[in-house]
Specification:
By secondary structure, the protein is of the alpha/beta class. Helix content is 33%, strand content 21%. The longest helix is centred in the first third of the chain and has 17 residues.
Length: 414
């Protein structure tokens, strides 16, 4: 028996497709991050009223007809846009790709809330007569919907499913893609995360009742992780899907390679419904580093999860100080300060926003950091202005979620 080439176990990113509140492809997104351009705006939602949110403005009809768009979901539409954009970005000869060998692994925070709220609202107009309940409701609300809509759109007959991993879901989708490629369950993975969260009034109402919904007279300044004046989460929609391939396959077709996924980890706090546990977060980071055979000082940029909540940011900083200490090398930034919290898409978008650092050697900033909270002190926290580096070889991406789910992905420049 011939042993497989070691490159078969090395997994690389060859395509990125995204929509964010401040950009509809990686180039636009990166330009916004380096220019300090926020995507948060005023937003009004049913029952709750006016608030702020990260709202995407992508071309919904680029890859879907109006008829299909009406039948599907916002999350599905986001996923379809991102998947098609990622395929184009990867330079794949899609017509000749074996669709049965493609796997779709999409992280989500929640799915179905938007459609159920909408149906109930419409039903109210008809005195709750259930004959007016949409027959599209079931396929719209099943948990696999966003991945399933991508499968239908692209004719993919390989496996598709979503991963419910709260706000760690974007990373979870990536990790699943890596694992399935290494197991030989697929030859190509479309993976990452999507979110339609802003279209459900319930998420705003719930964060508001928690005292965890951000507010500011200037929407662009509402999302302010690590700042002493932070007052909560800015809810955002968006999506980011990657094309993952084995290094051997990517090299054989001459693909451009954004980076190699060299480490990852997931664990659970087993502590509280919403409050994070810094020790478990630190353990998750340390496990990913160990699997990547890296030390903390080998990490050039840490993309933090921090959402702008009073306690959550402090807990993550405790974890980061435990792992990285004061090594004088590692830089820390935050993407939510630009776009808000894109929930299931957050981890994937935040990783994507940092990937160009391998080429341009710039760490984008955390904006709105006007009065740094001493409890969130991090040596190397990049505040308000991007910072140039001599080189960038490794990026570590944190993504944590409710019910204590933690995820970390490490990417290395090739």
């Amino acid at each position: 028996m011939i042993a497989p080439h070691p490159d078969c176990q090395r997994i690389v990113i060859t395509g990125v497709g995204l929509t964010a509140p401040n950009g509809n492809n990686l180039r636009e997104f990166r330009e916004s991050l380096l220019a300090g351009r926020s995507g948060v705006t005023r937003y009004e939602t049913r029952y709750f009223g006016e608030t702020v949110a990260g709202v995407c403005q992508f071309d919904e009809l680029r890859y879907q007809s109006r008829k299909v768009l009406r039948r599907g979901t916002r999350a599905g539409s986001v996923g379809i846009y991102c998947a098609n954009e990622a395929i184009r970005d990867a330079g794949l000869d899609w017509e000749n790709v074996d669709k049965s060998a493609v796997g779709i692994y999409v992280g989500v925070t929640e799915h179905g809330n938007v459609e159920t709220e909408q149906e109930l609202y419409q039903l109210k107009q008809y005195d709750y007569d259930i004959q007016y309940w949409s027959h599209h409701h079931n396929p719209r609300t099943v948990a696999n919907n966003p991945a399933g809509e991508i499968s239908l759109n692209l004719g993919i007959t390989g496996p598709h499913y979503t991963l419910g991993a709260a706000c760690a879901a974007g990373n979870a989708g990536i990790i699943q893609g890596v694992q399935m490629l290494r197991l030989g369950e697929c030859e190509l993975a479309i993976c990452g995360g999507v979110s339609e969260s802003i279209h459900t009034f319930g998420i705003f109402a719930s964060f508001h009742s928690q005292g965890a919904l951000a507010r500011h007279e200037d929407p662009a300044k509402a999302s302010r992780p690590f700042d002493a004046d932070r007052n909560g989460i800015v809810v955002a929609e968006g999506g980011c899907l990657f094309i993952l391939e084995r290094l051997s396959d990517a090299r054989s077709r001459g693909a451009k390679i954004y980076g190699e996924i060299v480490g990852y980890a997931m664990n659970s706090d087993a502590y509280d419904y919403v409050l994070p546990h810094p020790e478990r977060q630190a353990e998750c980071i340390e496990t990913a580093l160990r699997r990547a055979k890296l030390s903390p000082k080998d990490i050039d940029i840490v993309s933090t999860h921090a959402t702008g909540t009073t306690s959550g940011d402090v807990q993550e900083c405790l974890a980061l100080r435990r792992v990285f200490g004061d090594n004088g090398h590692t830089l820390f930034n935050n993407t939510k300060s630009f776009i808000g919290h894109a929930m299931g898409a957050a981890g994937a978008l935040e990783l994507a926003g940092n990937l160009p650092s391998f080429e341009d050697r710039v760490c984008h900033a955390t904006i709105n950091l006007d009065r740094p909270d001493p409890e969130c002190s991090l040596n190397g926290l990049v505040a308000n202005q991007p910072r140039e580096l001599p080189k960038v070889d490794t990026i570590l991406n944190n993504s944590f979620g409710m019910l204590g789910i933690n995820s970390v992905v490490i990417v290395r420049r090739l």
